[in-house]
């Protein structure tokens, strides 16, 4: 990439070319973007919401990130779960209510979560779940195991396969 920048600086300037366009081309080699609606979504067994495999779409390998979109009030966004089983991934998770309104239950306590709210579950033994309190509620979930290299879980690979999506990375 540095050699591209050096060539771009050293070479003759073409009509209409500017440094911003060179920088944009260089950045596009290591970054991409998509709207939530651009990423293929699927139905999965553990939620009533549409699952959008964000991590897979971008090929992220450092942490897990998915979105869940509840079509209707009362839909289960996040199925009740924890990560206490030592054979499961030992993820800490951060939830962000992007749009709509949700009610989380975290270790038996209700958490009212309108759009813009973050909810964290740092202890793997924390039992968590969420239900939509309004139509079209979107929750983003980010997770990873502290101090461990991220690995795509067998459950995610199975959900991708069921949705007809290739796992990235393979």
Characterization of this structure:
- With 170 residues, the protein is an alpha+beta fold.
- The chain has 2 domains: 1-31, no CATH class; 36-162, Jelly Rolls, CATH 2.60.120.10.
- It contains 4 helices and 10 strands, in the order ααββαββββββββα.
- The strands form 2 sheets. A 6-stranded antiparallel beta sheet has the order 1-2-3-10-5-8. A 4-stranded antiparallel beta sheet has the order 4-9-6-7, with no helix packed on it.
- A hairpin with a 2-residue loop joins strand 6 and strand 7 (109-114).
Query: Main sheet?
Result: 6 strands, antiparallel
Structural class: alpha+beta
- Poorly predicted spans: 1-27
Spell out the helices and strands N to C: HHEEHEEEEEEEEH
Strand order of the largest sheet: 1-2-3-10-5-8
The CATH topology name of the largest domain reads Jelly Rolls
Tell me the fraction of residues in β-strands, as a range: 25-35%
Q: Please, what is the average pLDDT?
A: 85
Q: Tell me the distance between the termini.
A: 26 Å
What is the general shape? globular
Indicate the CATH class of the largest domain. Mainly Beta
User: What is the radius of gyration?
Assistant: 20 Å
| Number of helices, counting only DSSP H or I runs of 4 residues or more | 4
Estimate percent helicity: 10-25%
CATH architecture of the largest domain: Sandwich
The tally of domains stands at 2
- State the total count of DSSP E strands: 10
In the CATH hierarchy, what is the superfamily of the largest domain? Answer: Jelly Rolls
